[in-house]
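Duplicate of earlier report; Quinol monooxygenase input re-posted below.
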Amino acid sequence: MFTLTAILRAKPGQEEAVKAALLKVGAYVRAHEPETIGFFVTRSADDPCVFVTHERFTDRAAMDRHNNGAGSQGFFAEAGDLLDGTATVVTGPEAFEL
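Output:
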């Protein structure tokens, strides 16, 4: 398995629009990306502008297809200007599964 975690910060006042765009990505993944086997979004309890995606793929190639696909590209086209700075992204092979 291969994972990607992204920390995104919405500009103040744009939190709900960023959340809606992330939900669209999730719906797209569910319908079109069978090799994306997990896509979760957390919204910080301490800072409502902060969102974290937790994404799990069958392999790196599946992650690359996801990142270059319509769902992810559509998110950044829709929400890119609503984000405060660039995303912090960590990717790598899964080291442990519960």
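The domain at 2-90 is CATH 3.30.70.100 (Alpha-Beta Plaits).

Merging into the original ticket.
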